[in-house]
Amino acid sequence: MSKRLLELTNDPATAIANIEEFLAETAKEYRQCATKSEKEQLLNLHKATLDIMERSFIDDSDMHTFKNAREQHYNTMLVWEATVDGDVDANILYSITQREIDAGRMTEENSIRKIVIEELK
Question: Structure pTM?
Fold first, then answer.
């Protein structure tokens, strides 16, 4: 994990003040992960940091926008993981979303989960 990402997540106030950088750094690192374990570690850090932001720093008036942006960013990383030769493999994406549900980072209500289930019918 990069030194900068660790700095951003060491203090939630720093992460929220630099949320665009946090998201960009997380995405960059996710694409560079070589192992499933590295991806899961980064996804856990991503979730924990955004959970703290959501509980502590996001106003009720911004909550809907924050939650939508959060899910979109998270789903994008999962789609990258399921992409093979430029195409999203629905079977791989299904396995990834199941892994995420099993790990407690995703619910069955996640939009990408619903899409992949429909795709595989």
Answer: 0.85
